Amino acid sequence: MKAHLSRRYLFSASHRLHSDAMSVDENRSTYGKCNNPYGHGHNYRLEVTVSGPVDASTGMVCNLVDLDGFVEREVLSRYDLENLNTLKEFAENVPTTENLCVEIFEILQRGFPHAHLEKVRLEETMMNSFEYAGSAEPRK
Description:
Elements: E1 2-15, H1 24-31, E2 40-53, H2 64-79, E3 82-83, H3 97-111, E4 116-123, E5 129-132
Parallel strand pairs: 1-3
Antiparallel strand pairs: 1-2, 2-4, 4-5
């Protein structure tokens, strides 16, 4: 019997949407107010969905303590209260929420052994959310 478990987490971070490969005007027209040189922040809502068989002895897909500890250690402590533009994973990639969602998925996929990672959903604002469920193609 396979079941899905979704768990929600909160963190805050800032970013500036800007590409060095684009001109000042291209950045402004592409990213609008999000290209502000001083950046801006978000209170992100992260939802992690894992799946697996329900363990007969515990009745769980995975232990929430294990999932929460991993997410805290590997994701929240890495991104909470940070300027995303200063992090190595965004040295060459614009720190859009789409790219952040992919990064978080890859961190979880590489390191959480207790269940299968189905998807990551990242809510940036009440109006914007992004999901990523992996790709068969390697990321550029």
